[in-house]
Amino acid sequence: MVSAIVVAGGRGKRMGTVQSKQYIDLNGKPILYYTIKKFLESKLIDNIILVVPADEIEYCKKEILESNLLKVNKIVAGGKERNDSVFNGLIEAKGSDVVLIHDGVRPFVSDSIIEQAIKYAERYGAAAPGVMPKDTIKLKDKNQFSINTLNRSDLVAVQTPQSFKFDLIYDCHKRIRTENVLVTDDTMVVEHFGNKVYLYEGEYTNIKITTPEDLVIGEYFISR
């Protein structure tokens, strides 16, 4: 069984809005609508678990799911940090063989990426899509001076869904909760315990909508 955990806990600070960014309108529909719809339409996904802040559950049910005729298997409350929210989702995904963990504000994930996520998780245990950065990446010192230029061909801007064998990601998330470790995504959780993550080719269209500029790009993608 393959489960998709859609994590939608953003508050929209970088977007500059009071409204949580996953509910911002994108061509007449909230961003989260497009994200959930992609997984609902995939024949490879058996189970969809939506994670949102506890104080937004009722709003999300009525304004996003019911009003747009969307169905998820479970909607659960997020936690204080992102890894807490993911762990709450993983608890509801017990019984799965593979789990895909995806950003709620990444609405343009393709069928190809979802298919590869499952395939590589089954093969390697942990996988994530990514793209080579388009810009030159430099390291800087504390005084804002450049100290090194990195080779772009060695770098990957990691996207989601990040996919895992369920037992691996559940065990790692459970263990890291007892440690004071800052993690920004789920690949870091499994890497912390010595596991390797297979990186496959993502897509530049698989953007995470975080700033007002991203909304302009998102509108363009939908218009196409």
Walkthrough of the structure:
Pathway: Isoprenoid biosynthesis; isopentenyl diphosphate biosynthesis via DXP pathway; isopentenyl diphosphate from 1-deoxy-D-xylulose 5-phosphate: step 2/6. It is an enzyme of class 2 (transferase). One of its GO terms (molecular function) is 2-C-methyl-D-erythritol 4-phosphate cytidylyltransferase activity. By secondary structure, the chain is an alpha/beta fold. The chain has one domain (2-223): Spore Coat Polysaccharide Biosynthesis Protein SpsA, Chain A (Alpha-Beta Complex), CATH 3.90.550.10. The chain is 33% helix and 22% strand. It contains 7 helices and 12 strands. The protein has helices at 31-40, 57-66, 82-92, 111-124, 166-176, 186-191, 212-223, and strands spanning 2-7, 25-26, 29-30, 47-52, 74-77, 98-103, 126-131, 138-140, 146-149, 157-158, 162-165, 198-201. The strands form 3 sheets. Strands 1, 4, 5, 6, 7, 10, 11 and 12 form an 8-stranded mixed sheet that branches. Helix 3 (82-92) packs across helix 5 (166-176). The protein is globular and about 50 Å long.
